[in-house]
Structures are given as C-alpha cells and as structure tokens.
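Quick one: structure for this chain?
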Amino acid sequence: MTKLPEPLLELIRPDEARPALVCPDDGERVTHTELRERAAAIAGRLRAAGVERGGRVAIVLPNGPEIVEVLLGVAAAGAAAAPLNPAYTEPEYRFYLDDLAPQLLVVGAGAAPVARAAADSIPVIEVAPRPGAEPLLTRDGAELPADRDGADGAADDVALLLHTSGTTSRPKQVPLLQRNLTSQARSIAAHYALSADDVSYCAMPLFHVHGLVASTLAQLAAGGTVIVPRRFSPRRFWGQAETHGVTWVSAGPTLHQMILDQPGTAPGTLRFTRSCSSALSPRLMRDAEARYGVPMIEAYGMTEAGHQMTSNPLPPAARLEGSVGVSAGAEIRVVDTEGRDVAPGAAGEVAIRGPGVTPGYLNNERANAEAFFDGWFRTGDEGTLEDGYLRLRGRLKEMIIRGGENISPHEIEAVLLAHPDVGEAVVFGVDDDKYGQTVAAAVVLTGSAGPDELRSHARKSLAAFKVPDAIHVLSEIPKTPTGKVQRSRMPAHLADGSS
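Got it. Here's what it folds into:
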C-alpha cells in the first residue's frame, strides 16, 4: 500500500527520552515529544495572533532550537514560513517583505532592528528562549494567548516560501509543500542510513534548505539528535562535536574549509561528512577525508528540489571524485534544448522530477513555462550522466554561488548603476578555492569614483556576501555583435588585460 503524504509535524515521532535538538552554547535540550508539543503550542499562539491557514509568516531568527520550533509551528498552523537572512540590509528586507506580504514578522527578542524598521505596518512577534519550556512569544510586550485549535497543517499546505536568485532582476518565490519537505527528509535519511543513534551537527543557516532539510529534518525523521549552535564557530566545532558524539556534519565547501583551518581532532563517533550547496574541489575532498578520517560525500541540491537531488553513496558503494553522485531524492535526466535525452556521457541540461520538487514558482508564468516540461524541471545546470553518476560542468544560468549563497548579478548591477558616477556595470562570478565563487564587477565610469567608493556605496544596500570583492574599471564593457554582455567570459577578458 502506498503511504499517503504526511504533514510536516508527523516527521517528529514522540520520544520523551531522546533529545531532538541540543544547543551546545547553553545546554538547552528538547526531546522529540517536547518538540511536537512546542510546535503545536506555537501554532495555536500564531493562530490567535491572526495567522490564517494559507497565510505567511516572515521569520528573522538566528540558528538555535527556537527557529526550528517556530518553523514547525508555522507549518502546524497550516501557514507558510518565509525565513530570511539576518544579514540583510533594510532595502533588502523591504523588498522581501513587500514581495511576501506576510501576516506577521517573527524576530528574536530585542533583535533584528533593521528588519523591524522595514516591517512598517506588519505586526512584529518577538521570540525569547525559555530554558526547559516553550519559547515565549510576545507582541508589544504581552504574551500571545493560546489557541487549542491551532495545529491543523496538512501535507498539501505550503510549508516554506523561499526566494531564489536567478538570471532575472527579480528573485522568484519558491513554494515548498509540507509533503515536499517530508519526502525529502525521509529520502535523505534513507540514503545516508540515518538512525535514532545518529547525531547531526547543523553548521548551515536554517533559512536555507540545506540546513533545514538535510542537517535537521532528515535527522529528526530518523529519530536522532540535531546539535544546533546559535552561531556556528569553526574554532568550537571540534570540541562540540566530541562532546556531543556527532556522527555526521553537512556543510558547504567554504564551511568545511573553515573547520579544517582550525586545530582539533575528529570525534571517534563520526561516520561520514557531507558537502553540498556549491562545487567541492578534489583537493578539498582529499584534505577533508584525511582530517575527518571518514568519507566525504558530495551531494547536489537546490531550493526548487526541496534540497537534495543526487548524492554519492556511502561505502562500500563507489563515491567518485568530481561527481555529485547518483539519484538520491529525485529522478535525473540530462537533456537537450528540446527536452530529449542526450547520449550517455554527453553534455546537456540537468532535469529532475520527484516528490520533493516545488509545484511551481508563485505568480511567474514565464519562469514556469521556461523551467517545466512534461513534468520535469530544468535546473539550469549543465552536466553529464554516465553509469548513473552525474557530473556538473557549469551553470547555464548566470547565478553566482559564493560559499553556498545564491546571488543574482542583476541585483548588484542595479545597486552599482544607482551611483551617479557609474555609466555601465556588469557583475559576474570568479572561481575561488575557498568560496567556490567570489563576486566581481566591471564598470565604466562617468565620474571620479573609484572601486573603494563603489564598494562602500554597495554596502549600504547589500548584505556583505553580495558586495563585489573586486571592481574593475574599464573603458568599455565587452559585448557580442548583438550588444549582449557575456558574463561567463568576463574573467578571461580581464585576465587577458584587454578592454
């Protein structure tokens, strides 16, 4: 018999003894039973505060047990959570809040002043930790009342609303249903043979599907424990991993490199590490396996897929250096521009389908028409598929991925062009061993501003990870005969010294 899709809260099996969440910073421990009860209670309070089924709740919280409890609580209320990066600037918050039109904004008590300033008329709910108890939710200093009928989220409700930066000037809204997330959590748990005895270390931010789905929901679905530091510290990782008996950690290559740069010894409990969110270099894979003393498993995921699509398998199956592995969460094809399969080993666009894939971008018919065909989703990535193993060759889209952060070049160009001394601007990614890519820009000036002034200008409107690491001043931006800028060729153009 086919199992029916589950509401997200059903991933958490009652267990009064085993911890589901542990915060290594303050020792807070939440059992599986407590996590279910707290999420249901939060759902009731949010409903009492005006959140309706099908509504939206924007969340600006740091990592820690509270954001997991709130995210599950929003889902239990049948609403969609929209977690936002705490590093955003006020203009960025204004854009996302305007685009999302949430019923509430949830922030940490006394925190997120920039988000609050951007909220305007959106009611703000504060969340404060309460050791050994459900977090305190308040509005204007008063605790939100309880609503016993609050938890009625269903499998087909939208659980997450995330923005993805692509090649258009406006980020797209990606809805992920509760059943998308439960399916992916169980698929990841099965692929890595996770059990109740496993302990995951959540190094990734929980406003990303990587940290939320892989590091957290997959481990919770297996009945085990997630170590959730409020702020990831590479220097403290080794000691925390040893203290809490961590058995696996998933992170982007940048965070893995930061961990490896610190002194420390891998705990004897560790059985594998996982890398996802940007390309893992063969050198880093070898260094990581030597230092961690366990296999480094590279995976391939994206927001629209509910995270994981492929992954190298655990030993004794083969894990191939330079490959992102085999199907693990989605069916995989490599197709030509007409959507036809290419020959084994030939290059084409990676296409996917599966229970974790978004039903489609919100209010964006053009993007959906471009991305979906015959039930398959075009990822925008070029790759080859042979003997079941996928290798990625590069991005067909123009998105920059810096340390796992997806960055739209158009957004940065708009900021640079807003400076009165900038006549033209093009933003592009540059390969980097540590971050995968860094952000660079080339500009044609109409005034006396230099790169330092332009970077300072960009910092006023952009989060730090989006500010160009290098700004090149050119006499003209190279273009095709039809007047198009070829971003992918900009690094080679600058290396040639031509302009």
